[in-house]
Amino acid sequence: MPKFVTIGYGDRKGYDRTDKAVRDAAHAHDAQLREAGVVMGIAGTPVQVRNPDARKVERKTGAFMSSSLPVAGFALIEAANLAEAVTIASKTPCAVAHGIVEVWPLEEA
Predict the structure, then answer these.
(1) pLDDT (tens digit, 9 = 90+) per residue, 50-67?
(2) Domains of the chain, with CATH numbers?
(3) 108 CB-near residues (< 8 Å, 6+ apart)
């Protein structure tokens, strides 16, 4: 089955202005996904890694890309197609609490 990486962006302000019942339903949706084996995680501090010409590993704390909303978390989901993956992502806390969820098709190498 195809796999998709989701990246959730959101902040406390958007979360707090979302009706509690909507948030609770989104958290219950995430709990069901985890019970079904979906790998999820809360975003920690990123580290950029470079190794130009395979000569010297360089690392820098912080994100390479920036966004108006902070990265909140990640998930690796399986879905029949992109439409189903979007439906799954649309019910998550970031999507319903005034955030954004990116859905990236994962092409396994």
Answers:
(1) 999 999 999 999 999 999
(2) 3-106 (3.30.70.1060)
(3) 3
